[in-house]
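pinging the channel bc i need a second pair of eyes. not urgent but kinda urgent?? the chain im working w is below, pasted from the shared doc
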Amino acid sequence: MAGMTTETAHRAGAAGNADGVGTWAVLLPAERYEAERLVHHDTLELTGLTDVARPALGDQVAVLVDAPPRLVALGRVTAPGRRHREDPDDPQSPVEPGTLVVAYTRRAFDEPVPADLLTLDGPVTAVEPAAFRALADQLGPPPARRTWLVSLDLPIEAGTPAEAVRLFWSYVQELGPRELPAFVSPAGDELAMQAFVLGEQANQDPEEDD
């Protein structure tokens, strides 16, 4: 029997479909999960995966969190960009070794689904295609998209309107979604406004706490 090529050997431990697309699960650390919930990202970058079997370009990925295991997103492996995630001022800087980049195709950060039947053996685990499909099917159809009005209300002392705007953006950058409440309502229905802090609906009416 002929020996395996480097590519074949690399993918020997991967579960995959008949078309050669592998199916995998990656585990998000708790703090990274919170970060993904707070700010929208098109891709997920995981680093330090130099000594583990890992997906190839185009492979499908289920993004999970632990304790208990839950599915929070689906995606496909894509090529890393040239800009280093931690050095945005140097677009020519090399990509950190062991970086895995997953382009999101479906998010469920707000309503994760159970993934108790999957057995994970590390930060990256090959998954049988049937198990991957069964897990993905639990998400159901994506919710219908609609227009929302999202706002921040900050009282700012300043000498001029322009200075107030500059201070506003400074506060937004400094405090961010971990400390600032954002107010959201369906377009045309401001009476349905809700406040969100740390990605969760929050009560901003002190009278309701009495």
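so The first helix runs from residue 6 to 10. and Residues 6-137 form a domain with the ph1033 like fold fold (CATH 3.10.590). — does that match what u expected or am i reading it wrong
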